[in-house]
Amino acid sequence: MGGRTRVVSGRWHAYLPGIRQRIVLKGPVVTLALYRLDPGTHSPLHRHQEAQMGICIEGSGLHRVLLWVRHGRSTRGEMTEIRVQAGDAYYIPPLTPHEFIADPKEGATVADLVTYRVYGNPPL
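Given the sequence above, the corresponding structure tokens read:
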């Protein structure tokens, strides 16, 4: 597996409307980034092949995560809401649809660690 992990200069930049990003560490199997979300801002509902884990550093927000629930012989997706505040950690499994909504009064700052699959060429 090629590539090296490197510490990035970490300048804040616009990522999405109302969201600023700062890449802290980037490597062949992990990326660590900080995100500042303005009050009421949300990331769009999305999913990716990588697992995502993080911690809320400041403020608070709501993770909306699609979980698959078995009911008898059938399985269906249900949106689950998980409230996080400063100090709370979270984990989102690979391929799980999710979004984050920052608190409408205080916004949020979160640190996300994304792990890439080790085989093949990981997306960077």
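The two ends are 14 Å apart (CA to CA). Try to locate this feature in the token string yourself.
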